[in-house]
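Hello,

Following up on my earlier ticket. Below are the two sequence lines again, exactly as submitted.
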Amino acid sequence: MATRIVVLGGGFGGMYTARALRRRFGRKAEIEVINAQNYFVFQPLLPEVAGGSITPAHAVSPLRFVLDGVFVRKAVVDSVDFERKVVTVFQGIQRRPTEVSYDHLVIALGQGTDFSRMPGLEEHALKMKTLEDARRLRGHIIEQLEHAQVTELPDTKRGALTFTVVGGGFSGVETVGEMKEMIDRSLRFYPKIDPSEVRVQLIEFAPRILNEMPEPLADYAVGHLERHGIEIKLRTGVKSATHRQLVTTDGEVIDTRTIVATIGNAPLPVVQRMGLPLDKGRIPVDRTLRVAGHDNVWALGDCALIPLKEGASERTDFAPPTAQFAVREAKRVAANIAAAVRGRDLKPFAYASRGALASLGAKRGVANVFGHNITGFPAWFIWRSYYLALLPGIGTRIRVMINWSLDMLGARSLVQLKFYGKPPLRYVYYRAGDRIYNAGDRSDGFYTVISGSVEMERPDPETGETTLRVIGPGGHFGERLILGATRRKTTVRANEDCKVLVMNREEFLMLAEGFSAFREYFRPYMDKRGVTLPGGDEDTGR
Amino acid sequence: MATRIVVLGGGFGGMYTARALRRRFGRKAEIEVINAQNYFVFQPLLPEVAGGSITPAHAVSPLRFVLDGVFVRKAVVDSVDFERKVVTVFQGIQRRPTEVSYDHLVIALGQGTDFSRMPGLEEHALKMKTLEDARRLRGHIIEQLEHAQVTELPDTKRGALTFTVVGGGFSGVETVGEMKEMIDRSLRFYPKIDPSEVRVQLIEFAPRILNEMPEPLADYAVGHLERHGIEIKLRTGVKSATHRQLVTTDGEVIDTRTIVATIGNAPLPVVQRMGLPLDKGRIPVDRTLRVAGHDNVWALGDCALIPLKEGASERTDFAPPTAQFAVREAKRVAANIAAAVRGRDLKPFAYASRGALASLGAKRGVANVFGHNITGFPAWFIWRSYYLALLPGIGTRIRVMINWSLDMLGARSLVQLKFYGKPPLRYVYYRAGDRIYNAGDRSDGFYTVISGSVEMERPDPETGETTLRVIGPGGHFGERLILGATRRKTTVRANEDCKVLVMNREEFLMLAEGFSAFREYFRPYMDKRGVTLPGGDEDTGR
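Thanks for your patience. The regenerated structure is below:
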């Protein structure tokens, strides 16, 4: 029976491993790639998708196009049983688990994020890890411009026109550059926005940005970005965030409705669940890319901790989490799996970086290639060409090159394609004093206080006097407005820093209509005002 | 003070009205367009977006590009106060209402849908009215192919590979043609799908499709579609739908996980709320496009009922809801508003259709132009050219023509860009006997029965015998699984046709954690099994 090799993950590492395995084994092995999406993402190009200079479809490649002869399964990995040599996945509408058996398993799932030490960041920041993130960011930026164009509230306008990127690594630097370019080019269509009202900031905790690159290039990058109007704050981190503000570790409060977080790498939950010991949040492998204690389990890419030499201990002794390394690791792991199957010796992974490239957005970059520093457009061009060369197959490269050229010809569009709305049930952070809603606002949800407290100010309908009520954890508000009046009479503000759970109005009404216990709970709150409840089998007057 | 003219809606009607007004008034009037999206959609091209032959961004044009000198407000219209001459809108995060005053108001909001007579269709069918609909459909089709590729359940595979379009008008015919083409071209990448397993159907209630076109062309269209493997069912309507089946008016039950509904036009809620009398679901206007009883309120496009002659009574005496007519109506209403402002006479709207064009998808069409019938690629080319000519401005036409050419050069991509997931709280219809979930399935939600009833089959943990329990309206199930066990022991099926409200697992847990009354309600259901509840201020053992 043919050897079954299953690859978890279809990024640079997983996709190239599958291709290399196919070339080595031909039809003598069954090779399968399991990925949550049916496409492979050119991750370094995501900021250009966010900036609108590449259309989303041109920053990805369908896995089926580049993995001929490999079985591609679009599914979510749930768990691995190393004893039975079985991977459990959920595919389709994801209720019935499917078991996929393997003789050899390659783990190339990448990394996730963990913002738990920065309250509010998970709920209110945008990320830049997936294609959806890039599209969401672009739509979000356009939304802020549209809002700033029509709003008459100065605070709202300032928050909408302040854009903050957290993290001065490759991703953060390229993202902030692309964002600035996109905003600059769009402003002529928004006559109510003065360019001087726009602030774009980059926040980095270390003393400098682009730590992976030689200092002269990092200095050039800082100068370039600053000349383009981007404010760079070094030695600054994020303390907490709300939907309209960011608080830095210096205690500065920035009014900003756009926070892009490119920091916080952490192991994915599925990797954590595997039960393998993790080091620095990654799966330790030996120099042949084998997972310790397993003959037939391998790992590579961002999720793996790969020593580059014997006795590796410093951060620089391990392979950095870049596409350049992942592609080389893939070749090595495929060769080693073939050797293992054929009873031959395995070889260690060895690769010395050929240099580093970073885009600064807007067709400018910095590059260190074979020891030489290059800046500006030539560096960006080398950067783009490098990633083109990293794409699998001549056919793909030609197609993508055509697409990129076409994108350059086309005008950068302003269209804000609708994307994910806010989840109907979500956590929101507020800082002490923040207004949660005002008298006169339209109902927008049912709120439950998770931590902290809020203060509700209401005019007494009989006396006309204002009463104050403090609502703490477990308390709730907003239901009266949904079930009755059309405009609020109350003003609610955060008494202290707090976290609330908000369910939007449509959901609340659906649940009240369908779930009688939920509806009945609110009856006492309604009767006082003569308000009627929706749905229900009893006669409620509606 | 300059005259303020506000146009509600940025489709063909609204957008061209604003352009014509700008040309007539120059700076002497303030012209404002209010639209929910910041772009204008080439609606007839939506099926080609669904089929992937045009990228979404190439089927729209940013309103700011084509409405120079016009104030564009991205906002949702809430209501109109005709006395005070004020439109109330919600912009930005949409909680504070904004009032926009006008001297003249033009209503060009288009139409909505109403599927209320066909249970399940609203919840389970896809539409083709907006750009998001087209993108969602495309992603949905690819998802079905991906699922069919990996599933081992024959029923699931059949449902995934059966695609049903309801409505044989322009939109339905073009959509079904594009879908078939896209599926056909994709199949070579899905080795586990045999082309004979794919069924694509078009369902039309009338005796023939394309009722607006001469019968010979409709016959050609039928022949063309059938030669391409599309099954056409005439004199057939929809009775009801679930997420995996469609029941026709003939009582036939079709296993299909893709239902595209292009029928069911109805007035939008915002139009209904305006309090204007509606006729045939549209706002009646006189021949000068003025709304009856108002000097300064006008309507055009799909939302208006425009008589083409005196004593109009038959359906054909009124302007059809097409782009061709909307563009001409826009010119007339702008001229009449200018006349009204300057105290001159108004002129009636008069236009005779120049012919009809329909795309059959896949670069084939039928056309009746100046009395001549044309078919095949030439007809499709004329159709495309006509819509190119309808675009506003030379610059836009050139840009779009380049984009369309580029789309034709690029390979039709298979990438399934992630789109809207299922709403976390949604209604689902089941037919008697349908299985809702099986023992062994992973928990996927908390269910409340709205109407009908379900039957739960569970093995008694002590005796091992199977018990049956019927749950009717108001009853609920699924909570135990979310709060405790990881796999179901129960099987639940629909006892009779029923409608349930499903809240997904993540939402349920968030709400249970945050809202103590909700959590406490489920405590008695949990204690019996020694299951603990999340969150809460009391010690629940977690």
